[in-house]
Write a structure and sequence with these properties.
single chain, alpha+beta, Rossmann fold, Dna Ligase, domain 1, D-amino Acid Aminotransferase, Chain A, domain 1, five-stranded parallel beta sheet, 19 helices
Length: 514
């Protein structure tokens, strides 16, 4: 079936990304928006836009009936869920199927199967894909789980069967603490997913997180588009992604990508998805990898794969959803060079990563060869308290990892944001860490090296004052009252925290004597 109009059931940068792909395919687009997003870029870019409720996502972007009502009213014949919100919601996919609207993603049956960690691991393990040793049985009694915990030994991981994002997860290092941790994991699992089932696994200390992009069509063909390494994480949230992984040899790459394709075929997977693995580097120099889960949607970091392979994943998703075959063989997919992505968040690393909200008084993106910015905001816009604080993704591409890292640092130093705090300086410090440069990373990297982070880019006081004088209105600058030996305008500006957003480029200029 030819798709003529797509409703994007999302917001922010992914909605903008999908709209641009649709335009290139001559497909009309429909945006939905909450009240705070009335003037957001995705609303202005779409061919049609419909309000769906107030700010909280539960009263807008998560309303299945309302979104399907807009699809009917607008005449959309397909819905793209993006990522987050309803993208991995089997009930939403099923509702689209029942309403005769094409869901641009996997089938509801696949989402349901792979969304349950126990059933997913049973299915892929039966197909020969390695999983972490542990227990994932139906008997969820305290006695059985305690017995299995003793058998597995410590360190032990308790994980919610329907979980994700680190919720319902506890690490047990002493079996004496197992009952308390089990109770906490269950309560969090129920609160987050409405399901108290857990599975137990041997806890892999400091693994690398490697995922494989896969795409399947309706004819049973599945291909991989190589791997991405996503080991730089803060509280299970990916921050930096890169491809290829610095740790994989050609032989290991073949093993892990083949395992990903096997897992996808075992679940009869259609459309784009990501098979995630834990990669263990052992003291004796050997390596093991274990199936973690399948993300049944487009990933935030899909742009890394696009830069590396030249394949537009959103367009491919749409073609597959319309019933077209993949149109190419595995041998035709070639990855060249090195791609690197960082996520730009409106948050304050110096104050425990609290979200930063308010107007975007200045938003200037870096440009240049091999630099891509996927953003969902514009200068003059407003950062809302209702949604994830990610403002944009910055992606760079070059011939090697070393050059890509330096290109990224340079690009970040040219990213100007004013009005809200960002994590730009934090990202630069991570990228400049010698162990990161050497590729010696794991999912514990930030916990080990950036647990008590303080920016190394703080500005000299005279620079802060100069910025304040330049940015504040004459009315704000009037008075000139001194406080602690400084003009009042200085104290006001520093207290607001806005000066931190000038750290990167201003320090670079200062160090260069410019």
């Amino acid at each position: 079936m030819q798709i003529r109009k797509i409703l994007i059931a999302n917001r922010g940068e992914i909605a903008v990304r999908i709209i641009r792909a649709c335009r290139e395919m001559s497909i009309l687009t429909v945006a939905v928006y909450s009240e705070p997003d009335r003037s957001a870029p995705h609303v202005l870019l779409a061919d049609q836009a419909y309000p769906i409720g107030p700010g909280p996502a539960v009263a807008s972007y998560l309303l299945i009936d309302k979104i399907l009502e807009v699809a009917r009213e607008s005449g959309a014949d397909a819905i793209h869920p993006g990522y987050g919100f309803l993208s991995e919601n089997a009930a939403f996919a099923r509702a689209c199927e029942e309403a005769g609207v094409i869901f641009i993603g996997p089938t509801s049956a696949s989402i349901e199967l792979l969304g349950d960690k126990i059933h997913a691991k049973e299915r892929v393990s039966a197909a020969g894909v390695p999983i972490v040793p542990g227990y994932m049985g139906e008997d969820q009694s305290d006695a059985r789980l305690a017995t299995e915990a003793v058998s597995i030994g410590t360190p032990l991981l308790i994980k919610a069967a329907a979980g994700g994002g680190g919720k319902g997860m506890r690490v047990v290092r002493d079996l004496v603490d197992f009952p308390v941790n089990l109770d906490e994991a269950r309560r969090e699992a129920v609160a987050s997913f409405g399901d108290n089932r857990v599975l137990l696994e041997r806890y892999v200390e400091a693994p690398r997180h490697i995922e494989v992009q896969i795409v399947g069509d309706k004819f049973g063909d599945v291909v991989h588009l190589f791997e991405r390494e996503c080991s730089i994480q803060r509280r299970h949230q990916k921050i930096i992604e890169e491809s290829p992984s610095a740790v994989l040899t050609s032989a290991l790459r073949n093993e892990i990508t083949s395992a990903a394709v096997t897992a996808a075929k075992a679940a009869h997977y259609e459309n784009a998805g990501t098979v995630e693995f834990l990669f263990e580097e052992r003291p004796d120099g050997s390596h093991k990898f274990y199936f973690l889960e399948v993300n049944t949607r487009l990933q935030v970091e899909h742009s890394v794969t696009e830069m590396l392979t030249g394949i537009d994943l959103v367009k491919l998703q749409i073609r597959v959803a319309s019933g077209e075959p993949l149109g190419f063989e595995q041998s035709e997919i070639i990855a060249r060079g090195q791609a690197l992505e960082v996520r730009i968040y409106a948050e304050s690393p110096s104050t425990g990563f609290l979200p930063s909200i308010g107007p975007l008084d200045q938003w200037i993106e870096p440009v240049g060869p091999g630099i891509r910015v996927d953003s969902g905001v514009v200068q003059g816009g407003q950062v809302s308290p209702f949604y994830d604080p990610m403002l944009a993704k910055l992606i760079v591409y070059s011939e090697s990892r070393e050059v890509s890292i330096q290109k990224m640092v340079t690009a970040l130093s040219s990213f100007h944001v004013m009005g809200v705090e960002t994590n730009i300086a934090y990202l630069m410090d991570i990228l400049n860490h010698p162990l990161y440069r050497e590729g010696k990373i794991s999912t514990r990297f930030l916990a080990d090296h950036f647990e008590h982070y303080q920016s190394s880019h703080d500005l000299p006081e005279e620079v802060i004052l100069a910025i304040a004088a330049d940015r504040l209105s004459p009315a704000d600058q009037s008075g000139g009252a001194l406080s602690n030996g400084r003009p009042a305008v200085y104290n006001l500006w520093k207290e607001q925290g806005n000066w931190r957003n000038f750290t990167d480029v201003s320090m670079t200029r200062s160090e260069n004597g410019n």
